[in-house]
Amino acid sequence: MAARVQMAVSLGWHIIVACFGVGMPVLTVFAEWRGYRTGDDAYVRLAHRWAKVMGVLFAVGAVSGTVLSFEMGLLWPELMATYGQVFGLPFALEGFAFFIEAIFVGIYLYAWDRLSPRAHVLSGLPVCVAGVASAFFVVSANAWMNTPRGFDLVGGRVTHVRPWAAMFNPAMPLQVIHMILAAFMVTGFCIAGVYAVGMLRGRRDRHHRLGFLIPFIAAAIVTPVQVVVGDALARHLATAQPPKLAAIEGLTRTGSHVPLSVGGVFVDGELRYAIHIPNALSLLVGYRPSTVIQGLDMVAPADRPPVNPVHLSFQLMVAIGFGLLVLSAWFALAWWRRRDLPRSPWFLRLSALSGVGAVLALEAGWVTTEVGRQPWVVWQHMRTADAVNPAPGLWAGLLAVLAVYAVLTVATAYVLNRLRTRPVTAPQEEWADEALDAGTGTAREHGP
User: Fold this and answer.
1) What is the C-alpha to C-alpha distance for residues 361 and 100, in angstroms, rounded to an integer?
2) Considering only CA atoms, which of 141, 67, 69, 134 is closest in space to residue 102?
3) What is the pLDDT of residues 117-159, one digit of tens each?
4) Per residue in 30-43, pLDDT tens?
5) Is residue 64 part of a domain?
6) How many independent structural domains does the chain possess?
């Protein structure tokens, strides 16, 4: 349990920062490109501020990612010893992606005054590509744990390893797309939420308007696509991991004409207090009411995932997802009619909360994925209990990790708040100020 809690805390913390590593470079480079293309300095100022936040979050993500890399070997040595040769390739490739990203993040942050606008925008593109590539490689490794491929078992030993087949496993395409879209939703709605708060406080200048529109539109575009991909991923579970789908729906008995359950709690072996939509689950999975859905009765009790955490997490994720879809549709309708934001203050209020909602949906989705695979760490090949480090003292490691992440959280919040309260400047203005400070030490007080 100590190992599982430690891994859950580490992954749950890191995945939020990792989402910004995927989505924020794209939004930042787009804003800068748009500013230089239109000659609108507001875009460039916005990109300059976002680049600083991107740099901070990249540094923090490097720390939390390093912790995770150690935890894989320290907490789950049997997993790595047995299957590391099978699914280690994407982790190695992710290391290359990380170093490419680190190099070009440095260039992008410190070369505003040393490169032409065109060259500087181009220097941000490898950051965008490397961020998406990192998500692809890591999620493909997780997808392998759900649909393991690329090896043979002979006498209980792993042989004939095929790393590329392992990386491109059946679950990989949908899981990767689902995660990348989630990253853009988290990034877009979180950034838009910050500017929505500013607009609610009366800051309706062009800086805040663009700061809201760019990330919100990006998130609103991917939200309906995410709903479609999520539906396809849930349908994939019907054949790839039937017990996980059964736990998601709280389905105890195998059969056809299965209803879709909305809400409810799993008590004494059955789902209670739920709203049941007749035949809906069978229709969603097989497009006809007669589609047979496997229930938990087809799985030995020792092989069943815990139902309530999986079911409730999935319900939370879906509820928030459809809420964000409605918010996006509200914006789209107002923009189509008047080329402006909805006039109701409730739109900005809900937008201010959309980032928190997107993060909660992200975490709930990962709980569904990981807890729904239990008791297996590698689906139907290795149990979680057999992969864990048997050494005593893991609780001490958990306490140390909790302390590290508490410090990281406070430090990150402090630095981001300092960036938030600094005046918005264009790059050239900031360089001039820095040069004057270095030359006189009093330029900020007396002016140029």
Assistant:
1) 30
2) 134
3) 999 999 999 999 999 999 999 999 999 999 999 999 888 788 9
4) 999 999 988 888 99
5) yes
6) 1
